[in-house]
Specification:
Mean pLDDT: 98
Number of strands: 14
Number of helices: 16
Structural class: alpha/beta
Order of helices and strands: EEEEHEHHEHHEHEEHEEHEHHEHEHHHHH
Bound molecules: D-xylulose, cobalt (II) ion
Low-confidence stretches: none
Strand content: 5-15%
Radius of gyration: 24 Å
Shape: globular
C-alpha cells in the first residue's frame, strides 16, 4: 500500500519544469566546490513535524489529513514507519531524525514505554537496511509529559532526574542500535519561570552532572555519535539555560564538557534570541563547535517559534556560507525542523514544503559557493582589517605590544582616520549573488 500515491520519486527537472513535485534547483549529483549537493547538504526529515504533529494549535484542533492514523496508537506508529520511509525515499533524503516519543506512544509504565519503542525500532531498522536511509540524530523528549513540569535534568524533583536519565540511557541504546551519527539534547524544560523559587546553581550543576553521565554511558556501550546541544531562548521556559550559542559554550566550558559536545543550531531559535542564524553559526565556528543545523525560519512579526520551512534565500545563503567556511557540516546535516502551516493540511503538502526547503538550500549553496569563489567576503574583510596586517597592527596581533608601547605610539598618532564601510553598496552587491 502507498501513502503518497500522487507522488513518484521526486526528480531534478530544472527551472524549465512546472511539475510541482520536481526539484528546480536541488540536483543531488551536481558538483559544487568539489562535492555533490547531496554530500554538502545531508538533508534530514524531522519525524515529529512530518509524521507526528497534527496541525492543532492553542486555539484549534487538528487539521492535518494523515491516512496513517489508526484507532490503536501502536498501529498508528507502525503505519508511520511505512509512510515515513515511503516519504524519505520518494523525496530522496539520506537522513531522518526523531524523539523517542515521536516513533512510539508512551505506555502506562516506563517498562511498557520501552517495549513500545523496541517494537518500532525493529521496524525502523528493517526499513533503514532496505532503503539505505540513515539516522542523522535521535533524542529524548523530556518536555511534553506533565512529569517534566519543573524540568528534566534541571528539575527540582530527584525522581524526575532519575526518570530522565532512564529515558536518555534508552535513547542512547536506540541511537547505537540504529547507527545514529549524532545525539541531540534540546533542553525544552531546562530553564526556569521565576528566581523566587529557583536554585540556579544547583540546577545548572545537575544538568552538567547529567551530561557527564550521558557521555560516560555512551562510551560504556560504544556509541560513538557526536553529542550536540541545541540552544534556544525563551520558549517554553522564560529563562532557558541554553539561551544561545555563546551561553551554551560558556556552560560547556565551565563544566569541562566542551570536548564532548558541539552545537545543533536552529534558524528560528537564533532569531528568537535576537540574533541572525549566521551569527549563531559564526559563534559556533569560533569555538570549533558547529555540529549540525535545524533548518527552518521564523516570522519576525510573531514572537514565537513558528518552525516554517526555509524559503528566505538571503538568510539561507548566509548560513550556507558559514557552513562552507567551516569546511562543511561534518557528521551533521540539514534537518528540516519545520512544519507545514496549519492551512497546508493535505498529505502532498509535506512534499511541496520539503521541496521548497531543499530547493532554497540548493540555491543558497550555489550562491554561497559563488561568494566564496569570488572571495567576496574575504576581500571585504581583508580590506577592512588591513591595519592589523602591517605596522603597529601586525605587532598587536603578534602579541608583541603592551600598554606602555601603545600609549607611546598613540601619542604620536592621535589624528585618527577611519575608512567608510560602504555597507549599503555591499548589501546591493550581495543581492547580485542571490537573484
Ligand atoms: C524545539 C526544537 C526541538 C529540537 C529537538 O524548538 O527545535 O524539536 O530540535 O528536541
Ligand atoms: Co530543533
Amino acid at each position: 500500500m502507498f501513502y503518497f500515491p500522487n507522488v513518484e520519486k521526486v526528480q531534478f527537472e530544472g527551472t524549465g519544469s512546472d511539475n510541482p513535485f520536481a526539484f528546480r534547483h536541488y540536483n543531488p549529483d551536481e558538483v559544487v566546490l568539489g562535492k555533490t549537493m547531496k554530500e554538502h547538504l545531508r538533508f534530514a526529515v524531522a519525524y515529529w513535524h512530518t509524521l507526528t504533529q497534527d496541525g492543532s494549535d492553542p486555539f484549534g484542533q487538528a487539521t492535518n489529513i494523515r491516512t496513517w492514523l489508526a484507532d490503536d496508537p501502536m498501529q498508528t506508529a507502525r503505519n508511520r514507519v511505512e509512510a515515513g520511509f515511503e516519504f524519505f525515499t520518494k523525496l530522496g533524503v539520506p537522513y531522518y531524525c526523531f524523539h523517542d516519543v515521536d516513533i512510539a506512544p508512551e505506555g502506562e509504565t516506563l517498562k511498557e514505554t520501552f517495549q513500545n519503542q523496541d517494537e518500532i525500532v525493529t521496524l525502523l531498522k528493517e526499513k533503514m537496511d532496505e532503503t539505505g536511509v540513515k539516522l542523522l540524530w535521535n533524542t529524548a523528549n523530556m518536555f511534553s509529559n506533565p512529569r517534566f513540569v519543573h524540568g528534566a535534568a534541571s528539575t527540582s524533583n530527584a525522581d524526575v532526574f532519575a526518570y530522565a536519565a532512564a529515558q536518555v540511557k534508552k535513547a542512547l541504546e536506540v541511537g547505537k542500535e540504529l547507527g545514529a551519527e549524532n545525539y541531540v539534547f534540546w533542553g525544552g524544560r531546562e530553564g526556569y519561570e521565576s528566581l523566587l523559587n529557583t536554585d540556579m546553581k544547583l540546577e545548572q550543576d545537575n544538568m552538567a552532572r547529567f551530561f557527564h553521565m550521558a557521555v560516560d554511558y555512551a562510551k560504556e556501550i560504544g556509541f560513538d555519535a557526536q553529542f550536540l546541544i541545541e540552544p534556544k531562548p525563551k520558549e517554553p521556559s522564560k529563562h532557558q539555560y541554553d539561551f544561545d550559542a555563546a551561553t551554551t559554550m560558556a556552560f560547556l566550558q565551565k563544566y569541562d564538557l566542551d570536548k564532548y559536545f558541539k552545537l545543533n543550531l536552529e534558524a528560528n531559535h537564533a532569531t528568537l534570541a535576537g540574533h541572525t542564524f549566521e551569527h549563531e553559526l559564526n559563534v559556533a565556528r569560533c569555538y570549533g563547535a558547529l555540529g549540525s543545523i535545524d533548518a527552518n525560519q521564523g516570522d519576525l512579526l510573531l514572537g514565537w517559534d513558528t518552525d516554517e520551512f526555509p524559503t528566505d534565500l538571503s538568510a539561507v545563503t548566509l548560513a550556507m556560507y558559514q557552513i562552507l567556511e567551516n569546511g562543511g557540516i561534518g557528521r551533521g546535516g540539514v534537518n528540516f525542523d519545520a512544519k507545514v502551516r496549519r492551512g497546508s493540511f493535505e498529505m502532498d503538502d509535506l512534499f511541496l514544503a520539503h521541496i521548497a526547503g531543499m530547493d532554497t538550500f540548493a540555491r543558497g549553496l550555489k550562491a554561497a559557493a559563488r561568494l566564496k569563489e569570488d572571495g567576496f567576503f574575504d576581500k571585504l574583510i581583508a580590506d577592512r582589517y588591513d591595519s592589523f596586517s602591517t605596522g603597529i597592527g601586525a605587532e598587536i596581533v603578534a602579541g608583541k605590544m603592551d600598554f606602555h608601547q601603545l600609549a607611546a605610539y598613540a601619542t604620536n598618532h592621535d589624528r585618527i582616520q577611519n575608512k567608510s564601510s560602504h555597507l549599503e553598496m555591499v548589501k546591493a552587491r550581495l543581492n547580485e549573488y542571490l537573484y
